[in-house]
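step=encode ok
step=design start
structure_in=
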């Protein structure tokens, strides 16, 4: 029988699993009333009901991940007292084991970072681990890490407790209305805005906000409204043994990356949960609407070898029968991070899905983030890594999902390295220079779908990684040679992955001025570096804006900000303004030439005047390069004399060949992303999404020079930044660090100490081959102004894998602080 539904609501949430109910709960706690949750079956009937319910931290390497996790763990531990319904949460503890030196080193790096954010991860001996997990064979374990406060919960009970809390509402609202057995078939739209939903029985609900929390159904529902939600269901297995006598009920959860398995007690037996390194996608074409509380027929032949490996950690369990071999779907995204936030395609449409089998674990934190985003207009944590707009449509194609998904389960659970890229579904985006670079010895990594040269080997045959490591790898010296070429001679980089937008029209300058902290109302031919900020003064992007003509601008931004930048441009065009935004990334090839001999090289192939007087720093001109006419911008992200050449794609290969031939006797070398990183870190250049994010502001990040608080008309975030500036010397500031010992490496997450006080952590690190040691950028925060005197005279150390190393800290770039080389 058709259930009568309200014709209007403030917010409609599609999906009654962990994420949808968590979002409703947190909205009501923010006094956001008039919320309705629609589920096509029963609550938890998608994937929530068969989740393992692990409330364990894993290895968390960002502040946002830690905050999302701890919020959920703490909420589940206290929720019963609020709602009267148990969540089944038990803090039985969480044990991670390491069977090789690299894994030990990785965990020793990450554990101090996690402790900084309230996760009590500490190292214990193999003997102590064996006592905690007596049923396991831990004879090959080198070290273990234990979190006593972590544990497990009952997924269905958690969701029902949250549902009661959502129905009860907050202090000043009537609570959420939760309706089962209602399937949403369409999202209603008008003029690029979501206006409500239509159900399978023809009823419509208009709404101010439409929130998709449909789990593995989200992609196909979103596609009907033109949304790009690249996620794919995959088979997920766990095995439960018959009862094992004397198995402790409070046995800690054990995770073992060497067997790709988690282990926990389950009603007197042992659960072995698989995240096998060769998984299987399920139903590429779409998930049946009627699939509720469903199971998938197990593929014994495929998972047999992985089960055998899983049993090797708990061989005693072979003496007991199998009560259940379960196979059910879980949805995964291409980079194993959720899809959260406002959709680029539709205003007032929000998403939280693609939880990568961690929906119970991260559901509460994700619901909290999304609820604040909806109510406050801004998220409370860094959302760069989870923002739904980070993918292209290519990532949603059946071919991509088919090829990438099998790798994801093992990648989620296995051992990780800082520079490891996906191995499957590659070549999504290739520069037209790809074949030339490959022939030159490029080893390619993936960046937002792009094939990017990471470093160059002496020959194509040597372009491989012999062994992944947290220490120096086989390519380290080749990368060092690229770095030295940029500092002493000249280097060439293919930066075609940089996103490029033409912004044109009568009101183009007004739009960009409103978005930009710096003054972009400059003469044609000027390049302006600027940040974009939100109303709180937090970063939304950092980029260059080049005025080509009176009403024509070019915006160049990193590939990780492509979707977000385009959405921000389009969303801020006023109703009475005339502006067009055109993505021209694919039509041009960006070739960067930098180094002391860059002018010599470019002068050999161009008849244009490249002198300082004719072509000063931060200007743009069209110049000839051989047969091509290219847009040349005299800018740098590495701290050397140089130009960005924006070359028509049809002439890029010819231009590259011409430059390489002309630079043979100038020491010209190809260079990759590792070298870009090491060079820019020596110069202390910031990079949005890597070392600054939406929770940071330009004043504390040391970019106040690019913030014009008094420019005519102001900009978004000016009031907030004015208030921050008025407070005087910040207590929290981004600093550059250089290790005194030339041996250790920095990768990010290393803790910063001033004397014996822990004051921050490194956001990103690299090796400063010119400076002679590892360099990194990180925020340091004190309870008093962080003055220049403290920075220069302080006793600074960085913690790497449990050891502290002396470091120099600086507010100014340690390399060429006077910018003499850039202006040469």
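sequence_out=
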């Amino acid at each position: 029988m058709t259930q009568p539904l309200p014709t209007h609501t403030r917010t409609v949430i599609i999906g009654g699993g962990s994420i949808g109910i968590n979002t409703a709960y947190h909205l009501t706690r923010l006094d956001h009333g008039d919320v309705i949750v629609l589920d096509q079956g029963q609550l938890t009937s998608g994937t929530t009901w068969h989740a393992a319910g692990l409330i364990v931290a894993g290895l968390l390497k960002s502040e946002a991940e830690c905050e999302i996790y701890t919020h959920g763990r703490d909420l589940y531990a206290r929720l019963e007292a609020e709602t009267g319904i148990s969540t089944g949460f038990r803090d039985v503890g969480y044990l991670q084991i390491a069977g090789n030196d690299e894994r030990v080193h990785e965990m020793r790096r990450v554990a101090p970072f996690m402790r900084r954010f309230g996760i009590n991860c500490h190292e214990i001996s193999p003997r102590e681990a064996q006592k905690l997990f007596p049923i396991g064979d831990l004879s090959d374990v080198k070290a273990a890490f234990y979190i006593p406060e972590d544990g497990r919960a009952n997924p269905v009970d958690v969701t029902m407790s949250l549902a009661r809390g959502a129905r009860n509402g907050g202090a000043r609202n009537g609570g959420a209305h939760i309706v089962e057995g209602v399937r949403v078939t369409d999202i209603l739209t008008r003029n690029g805005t979501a206006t409500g939903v239509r159900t399978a029985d023809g009823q419509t609900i208009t709404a101010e906000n439409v929130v998709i929390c449909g789990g593995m159904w989200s992609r196909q529902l979103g596609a009907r409204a033109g949304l790009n939600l690249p996620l794919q269901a995959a088979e997920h297995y766990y095995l439960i043994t018959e009862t094992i006598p004397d198995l402790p009920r409070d046995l800690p959860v054990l995770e073992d990356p060497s067997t790709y398995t988690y282990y926990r007690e389950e009603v007197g037996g042992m659960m072995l949960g698989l995240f096998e390194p060769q998984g299987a996608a399920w139903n590429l074409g779409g998930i049946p609407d009627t699939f509720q509380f469903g199971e998938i027929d197990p593929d014994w032949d495929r998972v047999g070898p992985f089960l055998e490996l899983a049993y090797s950690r708990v061989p005693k369990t072979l003496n007991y029968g199998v009560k259940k071999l379960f196979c059910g779907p879980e949805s995964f995204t291409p980079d194993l991070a959720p899809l959260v936030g406002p959709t680029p395609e539709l205003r007032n449409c929000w998403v939280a899905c693609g939880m990568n089998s961690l929906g119970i674990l991260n559901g509460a934190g994700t619901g909290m983030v999304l609820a604040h985003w909806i109510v406050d207009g801004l998220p409370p944590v860094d959302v760069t890594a989870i923002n739904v707009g980070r993918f292209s449509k290519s990532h949603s194609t059946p071919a991509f999902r088919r090829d990438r998904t099998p790798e994801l389960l093992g990648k989620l659970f296995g051992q990780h390295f800082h520079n490891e890229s996906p191995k499957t579904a590659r070549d999504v985006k290739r520069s037209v220079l790809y074949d030339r670079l490959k022939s030159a010895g490029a080893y390619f990594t993936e960046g937002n779908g792009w094939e990017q040269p990471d470093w160059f080997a002496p020959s194509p045959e040597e372009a491989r990684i012999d062994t992944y490591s947290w220490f120096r790898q086989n390519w380290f010296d080749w990368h060092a040679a690229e770095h030295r070429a940029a500092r002493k001679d000249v280097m060439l980089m293919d930066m075609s992955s940089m996103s490029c937008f033409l912004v044109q029209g009568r009101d183009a300058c007004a739009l960009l001025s409103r978005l930009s902290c710096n003054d972009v109302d400059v003469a044609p031919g000027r390049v302006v570096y600027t940040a974009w900020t939100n109303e709180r003064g937090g970063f939304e992007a950092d980029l260059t804006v080049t005025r080509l003509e009176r009403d024509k601008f070019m915006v160049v931004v990193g590939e990780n900000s492509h979707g977000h930048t385009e959405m921000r441009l389009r969303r801020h065009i006023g109703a009475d303004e005339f502006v067009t935004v055109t993505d021209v990334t694919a039509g041009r090839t960006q070739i960067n030439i930098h180094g002391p001999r860059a002018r010599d090289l470019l002068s050999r192939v161009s008849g244009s005047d490249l002198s300082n007087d004719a072509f000063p720093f931060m200007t743009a001109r069209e110049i000839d390069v051989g047969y091509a006419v290219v847009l040349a911008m005299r800018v740098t992200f590495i701290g050397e004399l140089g130009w960005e050449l924006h070359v028509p794609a049809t002439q890029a290969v010819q231009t590259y060949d011409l430059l390489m031939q002309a630079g043979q006797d100038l020491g010209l070398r190809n260079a990759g992303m590792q070298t870009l990183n090491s060079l820019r870190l020596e110069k202390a250049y910031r990079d949005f999404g890597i070392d600054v994010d939406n929770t940071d502001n330009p004043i504390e990040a040391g970019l106040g020079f690019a913030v014009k608080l008094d420019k005519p008309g102001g900009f978004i975030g000016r009031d907030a930044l004015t208030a921050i500036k008025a407070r005087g010397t910040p207590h929290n500031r981004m600093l550059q660090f250089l290790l005194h010992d030339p041996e250790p490496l920095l990768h990010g997450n290393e803790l910063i100490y001033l004397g014996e006080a822990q004051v921050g952590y490194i956001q990103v690190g690299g090796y400063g081959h010119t400076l002679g040691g590892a360099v990194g950028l990180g925020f340091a925060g004190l309870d008093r102004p962080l003055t220049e005197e403290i920075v220069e005279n302080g006793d600074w150390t960085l913690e790497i894998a449990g050891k502290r190393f002396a470091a120099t800290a600086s507010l100014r770039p340690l390399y060429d602080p006077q910018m003499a080389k850039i202006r040469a």
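step=design ok
step=annotate ok -> The radius of gyration is 27 Å.
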